[in-house]
TrEMBL record:
CDD domains the UniProt entry points to: SIS_PGI_1, SIS_PGI_2
Keywords: Cytoplasm, Gluconeogenesis, Glycolysis, Isomerase
Protein name in UniProt: Glucose-6-phosphate isomerase
Annotated source species: Zhenpiania hominis
Catalytic activity, as annotated: alpha-D-glucose 6-phosphate = beta-D-fructose 6-phosphate
Length: 407
């Protein structure tokens, strides 16, 4: 087992020569990212310039929250939600940590009414996260849950149970935070929502759930300390770009561990919002295997050839189970899962579908930190190869504006 995240392109249908030909463009993209001159690239050097006091404060506040509540409701959407949700699912919750649930992730009255019911019987804290401070879903849910919190505890105690993460100066949420005196953290102005998981946006909820955020940052630091990209990220970025040029417009990102479901959702947002503009971009789709083989397997084998596959392969499982009886007697689940992955890669690549495999030694905080940085950098570089700005989202702004007109 390798101790690094590795990209296997042997079944991608691409030659190493094709990949090498992209080197110059990749180096230019990397230089732009590291130059400090591009807007919204604050995340690039973030793991190398960690603010130790801020880390200390996040850990102290997370300790307080863990003592205050059994249910920690995080209110935010998009980049103010997916990073924390994905990491908590992937790394698991410590037994003594509060349950972390999310609100403001849709506009469903049913979803939020159920969560409100749950809140009645438990000790609760709220954490509202919004960079702009004006997002409709977040604003609606925060005000509903805040009212319930005040009813439950009275105003003074409720204020001690509200945590806000937002811009340092701008927006209605910052204004309310200062007025009411909520404990708060800042989303750096040079880091956009979908690149913000390694700021308090992700780190506070992840720490409350009990994952080791120091180790997470260490993982990201190891990746960031390799600015020449002597890891395999550039090959993946080049391969994604080349496959798009060859007419593959969908990237079917697959995992064999259900704990990675939201990690794939996080990648979908990162890739989709960063690349999908000006009539280009890969459409990121997520598949959960082996479950989806029994629904999408047919399409993947013989359907429209518009996609390539990216397989997330966790090499080491922390537990295993052995089948005690029947025709599979003596086989372990891990063996079977591995056999499924190998068989599927073989069957699909033989049928002409390009397959990229990303080998991840294991799923712990350190490697998870590496993965975050790996995907953020890959995403930014591929978007630059595509000739689009990885850090804006004019389409999101457009629908938000139209939606507000309807309200
Ligand atoms: O990546 C993005 O910029 C978006 O997905 C935002 O994170 C999302 O729309 C939420 O915005 P805000 O944090 O301003 O509430």
């Amino acid at each position: 087992m390798s101790m690094e995240i590795k990209v296997d392109l042997s079944k991608s249908g691409l030659t190493m020569e094709e990949i090498r030909q992209k080197k110059l463009e990749i180096d230019t993209a990397l230089e732009r990212l590291w130059s400090g001159k591009e807007t919204f690239t604050g995340w690039v050097k973030l793991p190398l310039q960690q603010d130790k006091n801020e880390m200390e404060r996040i850990l102290n506040v997370s300790d307080i929250i863990r003592q205050q509540c059994e249910l920690f409701i995080v209110i935010g959407i998009g980049g103010s939600y997916l990073g924390a949700k994905a990491a908590i699912d992937a790394l698991g919750k410590a037994p003594d940590a509060p349950e972390v649930k999310f609100a403001g992730i849709n506009l469903s009255a049913t979803y939020h009414a159920r969560l409100l019911e749950e809140m009645a019987a438990k000790e609760v804290c709220l954490c509202v996260i919004s960079k702009s401070g004006t997002t409709v879903e977040t604003t609606a849910a925060f005000n509903i849950f805040k009212e319930a919190l005040i009813k439950k505890y009275g105003k003074a105690e409720a204020v001690k149970r509200i945590y806000a993460i937002t811009d340092a100066e701008n927006g209605a949420l910052r204004e309310e935070t200062e007025r009411e005196g909520y404990t708060s953290f800042v989303i750096p102005s040079d880091i956009g929502g979908r690149y913000s998981v390694l700021t308090p946006v992700g780190l506070l909820p992840i720490a409350v759930a009990g994952a080791d955020i120091r180790s997470l940052m260490e993982g990201a630091e190891v990746m960031a300390a390799s600015p020449d990209w002597d890891f395999d990220g550039p090959d993946y970025a080049a391969a994604r770009y080349l496959l798009l040029q060859k007419g593959k417009s969908v990237e079917a990102i697959q995992h064999y561990e259900p704990d990675l479901k939201y990690f794939v959702e996080w990648i979908k947002q990162l890739f989709g919002e960063s690349e999908g503009k000006e009539g280009t971009g890969l459409f990121p789709a997520g598949l959960e295997l082996t479950a989806d083989l029994h629904s999408m397997g047919q399409f993947l084998q013989q359907g429209s050839p518009i996609f390539f596959e990216t397989v997330l392969n966790i090499e080491q499982s922390p537990v295993d189970l052995t089948v005690p009886e029947g025709p599979l007697k003596g086989k372990t689940m891990t063996q079977l899962n591995r056999a499924a992955m190998k068989g599927v890669i073989e069957a699909h690549s033989s049928a002409g579908t390009p397959v990229i495999r990303i080998d991840i030694p294991k799923l712990d905080a350190f490697y998870y930190g590496q993965l975050i940085y790996f995907f953020e950098t890959t995403c930014a570089v591929t978007a630059m190869l595509m000739g689009v700005n990885p850090f804006d989202q004019p389409g999101v702004e457009a629908y938000k504006k139209e939606m507000k007109k309807e309200i």
